[in-house]
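User: what does the whole thing look like in 3D?
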Amino acid sequence: MIAATFTHTNHGDTETPKVKNFRLRAFVPWFVIGISATMIVAGCGSDSTPTTPSNTSTTVTENWSSVVAPGGASTRSFTVTSAGTIVVTLTAGPTVGLGVGLPRTSGGGCRLGVSANASPGTAPQISAQADAGQYCVQVYDLGTLTDPVGFALKIEHP
Amino acid sequence: MRRAALLAVVMSLCAGCGDDTPTSPSSRPVNATERFDNIINVRESKFFPFSVGSNGTTTINLASLSPIDRPGVVNATMEIGWGKAIKDENGTVVSCDLAKVIQTTPALASQLSDTLTPASDYCANIADVGGLREPVNFSMRISHP
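Assistant: Here's the predicted 3D structure for the full assembly of 303 residues, as structure tokens:
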């Protein structure tokens, strides 16, 4: 026969199942609520290490090849969408004048802001900080050409 | 009664977790860029009137100095600045009362930046301070709200 009473050995008193059930029912809601509240509050905290925003600025590379005539100049325009660095590399052709500036507001051509006497190579001949806007690159004869000559260059910009 | 109190506690905790109502981004005025292209002679100055429509940053850029008769760049030091446009009784701008000037060489990024109070009577100025040996083309960009 199974005993109907439980003996609490630590205290020496007895506890009926009804009393125990009542104490358990009183304890469980507090326990569950405590866990829930802890989880909820923990979810409210902000992350301690904010992520760094990714840089959305991308570099555009434009390749241009054309011909420059004796005493002449060839111009190409391009758009810089955000402030950054314009890099121009004359990759093929004779030694020429190479410049970057603003397109003329009428009649074509280029009003140069920076220039260099450039011989073709792999290292950039012009590297200049620039605001966003419309720009032009110009290749011009330094007075050394006797015939039209082809050239190629690379423009890198934001 | 006790359950109601517990429920109220949990609800108040949950209520604290809600996102704040997002605020609208403040309107950021878009700058207009004006070009001032002309020829400047030795020891000469020229100005260009412009209007500032709202609060914001105005920048001035001396982008180019170039020979008139050949390709290339003139790397002369020039004085650029801004000021208040002076008008005659007909409202015509007749001079530029400079408030700020700097000396600079041409570059593709703005050299002068200031916050100007919205008004219609500003001017950008360029002057030779002894660097020119011949008349040259110049290009300035004025970016303003």
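In plain terms: The first strand of chain A starts at residue 6 and ends at 7. The domain at 60-157 of chain A is CATH 2.60.120.380 (Jelly Rolls).
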